[in-house]
Structure formats: structure tokens, C-alpha cells
Amino acid sequence: MERIVKILLALVLSTAITLGEELKSRPVEFGAGSSLKIDAGVQVYALPGSIWDFTGATLRGLTRLPAVTGQSGKFATNDAASANRQSIGQSAPIGSVGDLNSKRSTFAAGAGAYYVNIKTDYGAVGDGVTSDATAFINFNTWARAQTGQIYLILPPGDYKLDNFSSQRFTAGVKKLVVEGYGASINDIYLGIGIQQNNTTSALLSAITNDLVGGTSTVTLTTLSEYTRFTAGTWVAITAYDMQTYGYPPNPYYFEFRKVVSVNSSTGQIVLDRPLLNKYSTTYPKYSQVNGSNASQGGPATLYAMHPNWDQDLIIKGLKFNSPVVYGSARSITYVDCSFKTLPSPSVSLDVTHTNCTYHGTARTEVDKMVSLLRYDNVMTKTLDFQSASIENCIISSCRLDELSGTAKHQVVENTNITDELRFGSLGYGDTQNLIINNCQVNSFVPTIQPATGANSSTFSNGTFTFLKSSFLTNVFTPGRLMLLTAGSNNYALPFRITNIREDGTHVFVDTTLPATINVPLWSVVTHPCPSVTVQNSRGCQDVLNMSNDPIKGRPFGSYASYHLTGGSFGSSATSVPRSWILGNLVKLRVNVIRPYTGTLSSLNLHLEDFGVKVLSDANGSSVTAFDPVINLKIAGERVIMPGRTTGKQSGDSNINIGNYWICPYLQPYLGPGHPSIISSENETVWPIVDVELTTDQGIVAVESVISGKRRVRK
């Protein structure tokens, strides 16, 4: 029988080998008739007991396989592999992966990487019927004890994991690459981050009662809890619980750090890097004492991460048939994978999906506590972002039916969204920054959450006071931009939340609101997004508005522009797309480039049927209509600003204005009163009109995303 040898050289049969990055590649089999060339300077290393059999192969560049003494250009044979490994500082693998005298698929590269095959080394069948649980459990038992890079090969097949232990075959393996091209798996659970108990976390305190961004030292409130933390391990520091229940916790602020040292005398813990956020100790506190569940935190809290969380996991080419892929690890990368439902990333430093596809029908829920989430060249149905505790997310070169909700800091680039982009988090927290570049977005919908609990509060000197039992932690979050409303859908005075604190019975929300306000207190909603940048993008009117906006990074609804002809208008006021526009009117520019010369005796431009709804100022409570009329039979540019108008022509009216707050729509139409239909006339008589409107919401963005990295505070 022909004997086969598998070695760590990336080459095709009957070709020469040149090593380098190839040492990291998949094993290749050699047999009789193969041609092998070893170039000078190449080192190849084998595990003890591996068999090097080149019977019938032509060896070019070597006339024999000498024993290894560590020199370059030599092969490691089974009798000298151990000595050679020690000569380059490698350590032998711990435990056994099987009988290596008869199984030849496991080898060590010069960097200490080990390849194992789930079929030949562990006896998996992969027929979709026979249980493969024992094979995957045995692999995990061996792999958890290793410190070097491990490559697990899943040959083509359908692997059946029918118990929880086997479904966790990746858990606890420090550095693991799973290569599963042509393979499928029925279920998988990755690992654990936040631990399900209240004995591995602790509340924090500080001399100033706050942990100010920039410090790398935190102090435990209870000194005896220092035993919960160990130098060299990972921790998560969090603040402001947005959910008050569930697992894992859902904090507004979080960061992952390594512990450098623990001082048992002072309770001080030194972290490996300074913190970026501010972690208040006075935020409302919830669910601290249930021993079978993780603390929900609230005030500044430190969590000791599960030891298995410290993992670099890469999965390539695997098809997942499980409804949902759960679990967490420090770093997770999916490459060329197919999913019934895309993974629900949760509690990770970074999660990446590259060249992945979706073969299911359900929506995918993105979970929480991920510092950087990436989707590169992914095709899927729907991504749902339920929480702003996805810190940064980059979606690049993807095709989505729907993006429902966005991360706290969101970038979407080179992507086609065929249905709807609903921005802002769906349930918890807010989107602070949204960047869209070179995208097609067919529908752009702001998420505006009503704070219905505000009617149970009192207000005095800029502060809301709530009963803690009725407080809405998901809506009122630190630093969030809010709006008071002057009746249904009439958004008025914007304000920021500056602090949230409690006394045990009440929750106090400090804001930038003035001491005296006119807008009804019970009407409070969230602002869609305080900083939006759109470039080179196409689709619906709001996307076109922001793409044309010469100033980037402004609050959503600060700019609108139209290029209109007679063909832009149909039989109703809704023929022209509506723009979401909000804020103090800065400038309205209407340029009649070509006047109307058709059969109608008059034709006017209006900004909205019955006028644009406005307040006398942002703090007003009486809604009126602003209805400027532009005579489209006379060419020329009109520029309308509070207290100043230029370019007025005969037949124009209502174009001298004061300080108006627009709330929040604009939808131009043609007609002397209601829309007039001119599309049946020859297009040579149609008017051509540019409309541009700019507002100022009085808002300055306080946070930004730079190249997808963690945010910096201004």
C-alpha cells in the first residue's frame, strides 16, 4: 500500500516548494511520483513520532534525509524532532492528540503551530447522522492545554454535535484557526465573557467620586474584593446599566483592559491602558446580589472576565446550520462562512465577518458589549442593533435588505441597502455618530424613542426627578441628545443629559434645559443622531440631502436640497419626497433657473402643503405655518434669512421672516394653492428650480469615530 505523508508545506503536488508564509498553510499529501525540492535556508520541523515517508518520490536538492542538528536546510526526522524543537525555543505539545505513529496529520511549524484533523486524528465521521461529539470533546481537551497556534482541519462533511460539551469545542483554546471548507456543523457555542455570578465583579469608587477618562488606576469600594482580580487577566469596566435585567449586562459605557497589578492593602487596581470614558459612581444601581446571575452594574463596576474569554478565534469556510451562533471571546473572525442566522456578537473586543453569506430567513440580532464589530463583503437579510453598547461598527462592501438600528459609532461604506436603514439604536441608548460613504440607501428612517415616563416626573432648574421604579434607563442615557415636543411630531427645544444620579428612591436627570421652558414637559423624545456625515451616496431624499450638504458631521436634519423640474411633480403634494428638517432657519435659497412658460396663468412654489410647521423659537409652544410663495414665472435667485431677504420678485410673498424653528418636515410642491399638474405639458415649458434650506440646531457633537478605531472625546 502506498504510504502517505502530510507536512506543513503549501504547495501543489509535483511542484517545487519555497517556504515562508507557507508554513502557516494547510497540509498537503505526498506520494509516489511526487517531486520535492527544498531550497537553501529552509527549516521544517516535525512533532515526535511523525512519519516522513517519501517512497517513490524524486527529491531534488537533497540526496538523503539526515538527522537534524538544528542547521538550516535540514529535515527533522522522527528520531531528532524533539532536540530540534528545543534548539529554536519551542515547547513540546502537552498531552496527546492520538497515536502519531499511525496518524500523520499533526506537525509543528517553526513558530510552534500544530495542525490536527478532526477525522484522521479524532475519528469524526461527518455524515450528518453519526454523533461526532466524542471527537470534538477529545480535541478540545487536548487543545485547551496548548499555548501555541492550533489549526483544526474539518474535511468536507456534515458534523453532528449533539451535546453542549461538544458544541463548545472552541472554548478555552488560546489561539485557534478552524478550517472547514466544504464542512457544515449543526450547532456551536463559542465561550463565556461576563461570568454568571456576583462573586467575580465589584463596584468601584474614587477619591473624586468619579473615574475620569485618562486614568489607568481604579479603586474597589470593598477592599476584601481584591481577591476577585488577578494580575495578567482581563477585566471589563462598565457604567450605566441600560436594561436592569438580562444577561449579559447592557452598560452604556464599557472598556476591556488587562490587570497589571492588584494592591491588597489599598484596593487599587492598575490597568494596562488609560480609560477613554468617564465612569460615574452615582448612576442608578440595579440587581447586585443574585448569586446565580451576573451583577447588572449601574455605577462604575469592574468584572473579571472568564479565563476562556482570552482567545483569538478564526473560523474559515464553515457552514453553520444552527439557528443562532452564541458566545463570546476576546477576538473572533469569520472568513468565507455561511450562516442560517448571522452570529449574535456579544462581549468581545473585536468581531469580524469577511466574505460571509446568509442562507436563512430570520432576522439577525446584534447583541451588546462589543468594542469593534466589522462586516466586510457580507450578504444578509437584516441586521438588528438593539443596543448602543456596540461601541464601533463598520459595515463595508455589503448587501443588506435592511439595517435596523445602528451602533453608538457607525460607519457604512460601499454598501447597498435595498430596503431600509433605520438609524439609532432600537431599544437601548443612542447613536452618537453615523458615517455613510459611497452607499445606496433606498429608505432612511430616524429612530425617535418617546420618553413616555416623563409625564410622571417633576422638573425644576434643568433637572427631571423620577421615581426610581418608573425611570426609563433605556431612553435617558448619559450625554444623550433629547427633544421636547410641541404636540405630536412637532419637535422643539433640544437638550443634553449632563448627569444621571439617584438617592435610592428617586433618579435625578440633570440637563442643559433652561430653568423656564414653554414646551410641555410630558412630551420628551430622543434625537435621531447628533452627528451625521454622508458622502457620494444615492437613494432616498434624506440621503441625497446629507450627501449634498457641504458641511459634514452636523446633526441629522440640518440641511435639505432639491433640483426640481415639472417632471418632479405629480398629482399631489406628496409627489416630491419629504425631507426631515429641524432647527432654527439659517437660510432658504430658491433659485428659479428656468421660469415656467406654460399655459397656466400663474404657478407658484410652496415649501409644504399649507406651509412648513414652525415655532417662534426653539423654546416656543405655539405651532404656526411658514408659507413663503415663489413666483415660478420669473427667473432669479431668492435668498431668505431671518430679518433679511434678497432677490424678491413680483408675485413672491411671505418671504420676510423672523427667527423660526422648523419642526420637522419640508416637501415642496407647485401650485397657486394646492398642487397644480403640469407634467402633461411639454417639458420645454417646465420650470427648473433649486431649493436649499439650512438650519442650526445648536448642537455640537461630543464624540467621533476615527478610521473605525475606538472613539476619542473632544
Structure description:
- Helix content is 4%, strand content 36%.
- The longest helix is centred in the N-terminal third of the chain and has 11 residues.
- It has five domains: 98 residues, no CATH class; 124 residues; 108 residues; 75 residues, Elongation Factor Tu (Ef-tu), domain 3, CATH 2.40.30; 138 residues, no CATH class.
- The termini are far apart.
- A hairpin with a 5-residue loop joins strand 15 and strand 16.
- It contains four helices and 57 strands.
- The N terminus and C terminus are likely disordered.
- By secondary structure, it is mainly beta.
Keywords:
714 residues, 5 domains, eleven-stranded parallel beta sheet, 57 strands, flat, disordered N terminus
Morphology call: flat
How many beta strands in the DSSP annotation? 57
The biggest beta sheet is recorded as: 11 strands, parallel
- Report the sheet-strand fraction: 35-45%
Strand order of the largest sheet: 5-7-9-19-21-23-26-28-30-32-41
Helix content: under 10%
| Coarse structural class | mainly beta
How many discrete domains?
5
pLDDT < 50 runs, ≥5 residues: 1-92, 96-111, 701-714
Rg calculated over all Cα atoms: 32 Å
Q: Could you report the average pLDDT, rounded to the nearest whole number?
A: 80
Total number of helices: 4
Distance between the termini: 71 Å
